[in-house]
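To whoever is on call:

I kicked off a structure prediction for a single chain this morning and the downstream step that reads the tokens threw a length-mismatch warning. I double-checked the sequence; it's 150 residues and nothing unusual in it as far as I can see. Pasting both halves so you can look.
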Amino acid sequence: MKTKALVLLFFTFFCVSCDVSTPFVVQGEREYILSSDCGTMVIRGSSFSTGVLIRCVFNGNYVVNTELLKIEPTSGEDTITNIRLRLNSVELTGKEIKTKRGDVITLSCNLQSTVPYQKSRGMILILPSKFITCEEKSIISDTIRIQLKN
């Protein structure tokens, strides 16, 4: 009986004390859709504690140049670290990747405050660049604002 009570107490403690994953808002929407001659790309994601997951689902043929990603926090007191890219759950190692319909690129990173004991401001920007292109034209032509819910 004591074992059951301890397990229940242990389970309750960890469920109540954990952060939960929350979806974030991209350009004021839960899903942000970019369209081009190559098709569409849907951006959505979530955050958990300091971790951020941004998913881009491709419905067309695009080229992704991993070295040209421009991402930054809106606050000078925040920093983005541990940036990793995956294509269909496989870590990207190449510089240039060609996507096809149904491919998913996941960008994971950490948004942390550089000020001790202070939470991050909760907004990151993906700046215009040739990170994702269609027929050698940049898909991200305006800054994409991602508001984390914290």
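Update from on-call: the warning came from a stale cache, not from the record. Cleared it. Sanity check on the structure: The chain is about 10% helix and 50% strand.
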